Amino acid sequence: MKQETSLFSQYPVLLFDLDGTLSDPMLGITHSVQYALSKYDIQVDDLQTLCPFIGPPLQDSFRDFYHFTAEQADEACRYYHEFFVKTGMFENELYPGIPELLTKLKDADKKLMVATSKPEPLARQILAYFKIDGYFDFIGGDTLERTRSAKAEVIRYVIKQNALTDLEQLLMIGDRKHDIIGAKTIGIASVGVLYGYGDRPEMEKAGADCIVSTIEDLEKILL
Question: Considering 17, 19, 175, 179, which one is annotated as catalytic?
Fold first, then answer.
């Protein structure tokens, strides 16, 4: 059920997705996917066609978009990370206004956490690279072995690691349906952002409690 936007400022614990919410990883992710696909003699020249890989669990995308078997998808993930850890991880940029938003949220005594389907060690490196890791009380993600890739599993992990017992205090913020569906699966509220890689129909169908278009709009409802 949709809530009044003024109510979102009352959530003390905010869980942020990473890709498409805090930073724009388009070049790094699509170049890494391009590299992985080349190992199967699949040549993709238009990186825009690989943007659907941004957000969902990586194995799912190889299976869904290229009909890989589970074994091929796991192997493709390894090829992906081969390129990503050397180059792709740094072909990434923060969305303008994110550091300022995080500063204001911390000043308002919000507890900030990351819940990403990206492997946690890589997420930590990326946030440190951008010098925003210090804003977050906890950074949670998948394992390097991809055993915790579904967003609901990541959210559940963040909740367990931080002994968060009152789910009504938690708010998930993300740009794809997986963030919203994961939040609903766990039973927490969610905000869908449109400046990333999802669109309004996707957010509405997934059941986001609130949808905002810009980082400025996000700030308005959170503070």
Answer: 17
